[in-house]
Amino acid sequence: MSSHIAIFGGTGYAGGHIAAEAVRRGHQVTSYSRSGAPADPVDGVTYDVGSLADADLVNRVAETADVVVIAVHGADVDGKPLVDLIPSVTAAALAHNTRVGVVGGAGSSLVAEGGPRLVDTPDFNDEWKPEALAHADVLDALRAGPEELDWFYVSPAALFGSWAPGETTGSYRTDDDLLVTKDDGSSEISGTDYALAFVDEIEKRAHVRKRFTTGH
Question: What is the CA radius of gyration of the chain?
């Protein structure tokens, strides 16, 4: 069944791949970003200018969307950490019975049962920590939020982003909270295959009010 999917950050790396995959499957997709349409727009995606920091816009979007996807930076959304915007997103989603899907970070994923988190391991890049910890705060806020809120949060593998585009395999593996790794200990996923996992979750609802991890 076709859904109306609104993506905040729909022109970014993860959001753009999710938009493309969702449209490919016949969903209606609207992208909101500060820049509007990108230089190379995805056919079938409607582009608009807007920020997740605009609570009135978020409420209007949630009124018509089946799923609101958050694919923005964790540490800075128009000068605010993303976690500070979760209350307004929650209010809008509850008011209109809208599902919320979050593009999370790998840093909050566990490297072993019971921990530690990837961000807490000695080799984690210090420059990445503020963003990783900001996304971890968002996950904590969702878990502590109202039980009525319908949400999911998808943590990618350790190597994920435009700087590590990876290979499109057409498949992915998942776990609950454990970082998905290969037999050699590496952890990566392409933007295209991450989008497969994300849109599959929109369609199948396998992780209601849960985080899951994904990787090759």
Answer: 16
Give the Cβ contact number of residue 37 at 10 Å.
Answer: 16
CA-CA-CA-CA torsion for 103, 173, 142, 19, nearest 10 degrees? Answer: 30
| pTM confidence score | 0.97
Closest CA to 202 of 151, 145, 166: 151
Tell which residue, 141, 137, 76, 69, has the closest CA to residue 107.
137
pLDDT digits (tens, 9 = 90+) for 50-96: 999 999 999 999 999 999 999 999 999 999 999 999 999 999 999 99
Q: How many CB atoms lie within 10 A of CB 177?
A: 17
Please state which architecture CATH assigns to domain 4-215.
3-Layer(aba) Sandwich (3.40)
Domain boundaries along the sequence of the chain? 4-215
The distance of Cα 212 from the centroid of its chain, to the nearest Å, equals 11
Determine contact, residues 201/101, Cβ cutoff 8 Å: yes
Nearest CA among 153, 171, 172 for reference residue 69? 153
What pLDDT is recorded for position 135? 98
Cβ atoms 128, 158 nearer than 8 A: no
CA dist., res. 34 & res. 11, Å (int):
9
